[in-house]
Amino acid sequence: MSEYNFAYLDEQTKRMIRRAILKGLAVPGYQVPFASREMPMPYGWGTGGVQVSAATLTPDDTFKVIDQGADDTTNAVSIRKFFENTAGVATTEETEKATVIQTRHRIPEAKLREDQIIVYQVPIPEPLRFLEPRETETRKMHSLEEYGLMHVKLYEDISQHGAISTAYAYPVKVSGRYVMDPSPIPKFDNPKLEMDAIQLFGAGREQRIYAVPPHTKVVSLDFEDYPFEATKADHPCDLCGAEDSYLDEVIMDDAGNRMFVCSDTDYCRSRREAGHVGRLAEENAA
Amino acid sequence: MTPLLQVKGIEKRYGARVGCTDVNFDLYPGEVMGIVGESGSGKSTLLNCMAGHLEPDAGQVIFDTRVDGPVDTVTMSEPERRMLSRTDWAFVHQHARDGLRMSVSAGGNIGERLMAVGDRHYGDIRDKAVDWLGRVEIDASRVDDRPSAFSGGMQQRLQIARNLVTGPRLVFMDEPTGGLDVSVQARLLDLLRGLVREMGLSAIIVTHDLAVVRLLADRLMVMKSGHVVEAGLTDQVLDDPQHAYTQLLVSSVLQV
Amino acid sequence: MGKDEAMIELIDVSKSFTLHNQGSAVIPVMEGASLKVEPGECVALTGSSGAGKSTLMRVIYGNYLAASGQVLVGGVDVAKAAPRQILSLRRDTLGYVSQFLRVVPRVPTLEVVAEPLLSVGCDKQVALDKAVGLLKRLNIPERLWTLSPTTFSGGEQQRVNIARGFAHEYPAMLLDEPTASLDAQNRETVLSLIEEAKHRGAAIVGIFHDLEARERVCDREVNVSDFTPGLAA
Questions:
Q1: How far apart are the first and last CA of chain B?
Q2: A100-104 and A117-121 as β-strands: parallel, antiparallel, unpaired?
């Protein structure tokens, strides 16, 4: 413990990252460049999120990490352990109890509060990248608010699939100004982007930080005749019976039997503890 | 009548070398002007200066905007100029792949300019895309195909549709028929002529093909070493060239 | 414009060619050309081959640049006018039936003929109807109307060219051998088209090698040899 500075990064670096975070909060949705550091984990494992968390955590915080909603995947466990070791902060799997939540690809089902911060791991922060590979050009497009291209992508979706098939990383317009990639969260989570908590986004490899302050207007892009829909599998959770949560589909056997379970493991567990029972829960118990 | 475009004293240097210099002319609504000259004569530099792709070292490019009347596009703010180039201006590149998004369907390519100016109704955008495919003689069934699956002539026609869908008033064309088969060229020329008249377009066409300007351009400007050496009515310049260089250019054309 | 006011008037026009690539040789081809044509009048240009009949026509049309003098057509001085003035003159006022048809490949004959009307803003159906009438009069078989005239025989092309030239009722017209290579029946049609044009008040300058035709439609003759430098009497 003593060989590391609190939360691994040195204080200068954390200060640099905090400045980027504050700028991001001041200009919601704007991608602030920052000098991303080498972290003791490979790119793609959340290096951006980890640096933002490191700069955000205080010794009194309680830290939670989820990976696609789950607290118990390799990625979530190793990042949680990383901060247990380097910051000595308390950790939890309960959304309610956490003050800082680092997430990969989900927003927890439980409504977040004003005293919470959620940190997203972002692989590709640039929502326009799909159609415009030139960074100089995408920067100009952001600065001039030229966002027609974003709709070209949605147009392509409809023309090829009959509906907007973009199911995750669904582009949003923040505070009526910047178009932002909300990281690869399912579009089911998009409506939750207008929340009470502070939302910070970190892209380590791409060296960008951006943010959405509490109570900021976040609108999912769409067409008048193809309005945005927050979709999920049309099914209740087979374990806890929840009908309002985002579900993972799990193939059960070679016969193609499948089950749907909450992707938010904490939400599912707390519901089951409260006595809710899904279609397959009793069989499992038996 | 106010000229649609007034070019005054345009100069562009590349270090000590002259790209183009002392270019002056007025273009009126509905006029098509050709710029001819050999490679390196400065015609493409001039075109790019006028279209806002290059910043000239001196001179004005005054466009008669719909709202504010004549405005110098060289000194106007970049957002304004970019807006102009998405609405009232169009630019047809020699190579269709420079002017198209190759990974986006034909419909998406045509729809982009509509969406860029705020069209948000998928059905309307698609209807317009299909209509424009028809106008450039591409079968409506190809609307969801990518341009990479199109022939060179089709790509060029698609590029034209993509440019004209917002009803621009001025089209810049850089060797629009270059690299196409002769029969495909003819079809494209015919199409362009029809569209120019139907939509009342003004156009500036850079080419080294004198046959193209004879068929498309009302007026002609001949460039050599960055200078305009002769300008006038297209058939007059071609049939009764006054300048030594133009005489050489005209007499160098192979007769068919 | 009054009846006795000239529709086409040339005042002391000269024309020379400078061949820059052949030792800058200056070849004077026309000097002191003056000419006046009133509405409803047809003037024939005469003179031996090479005397400058076509050159004079081209100068009037603005195709050749006059070296000096005034070339007034409908009040516009073609020798000094800006390209767009000449273009609008050609669109509205001054028609030219040349000996050769020059068209964009692939455009159907019917549209080639209707085009001058469309470019003056004529209703499309009206223009096409008029084109049909002219093509019928000039005996172009209906099966050819939808084809491009570029593949037609010389005589057919000539007649398409005439139909196109007479589609819009220009107040001033230039005709370069309009009856050449036509059979008797088509020649008759062309001559009546010219007579109709004169009747509605068109001022016409023409080159007619066909003597009979010249005598029938022309009111006067002007010998361009009088304007040939070194040949003038």
A1: 40
A2: parallel
For residue B106, count CB atoms less than 10 angstroms from its CB and return exposed for 0-12, middle for 13-18, buried for 19 or more.
buried
How far is residue A284's CA from residue B6's CA, in Å, rounded to a whole number?
Answer: 80
pTM of the model: 0.86
Strands B5-14 and B58-65: antiparallel
Rounded Cα distance, C123 and C131, in Å: 12
Q: What is the pLDDT of residues C156-211, one digit of tens each?
A: 999 999 999 999 999 999 999 999 888 999 999 999 999 999 999 999 999 999 99
CB B229 within 8 A of CB B223: yes
DSSP 8-state symbol, C20 = T
What backbone torsions phi and psi does residue C23 show, to the nearest 5 degrees? 65, 25
Lateral strand order in the sheet of C25-37 = C25-37, C8-19, C68-73, C76-77
State the number of CA atoms in the 13 A half-sphere of B5 facing the CB: 28
- Chosen for mutation from B240, B245, B251 (greatest number of chain C CBs closer than 10 Å) is B240
Whether residues C106 and B240 touch (CB distance < 8 A) is answered with no
For residue C133, how many C-alpha atoms fall within 13 Å in the half-sphere facing its CB? 10
Distance CA C218, CA B18 (A): 56
Return the closest-CA partner of residue B220 out of B233, B211, B204, B201.
B233
Q: Which helix (H) or strand (E) holds B232?
A: strand B227-233
Of A24, A29, A46, A49, the active-site residue reads A29
Q: Do B233 and C107 touch (CB under 8 A)?
A: no
Q: Supply the ipTM of this predicted assembly.
A: 0.88
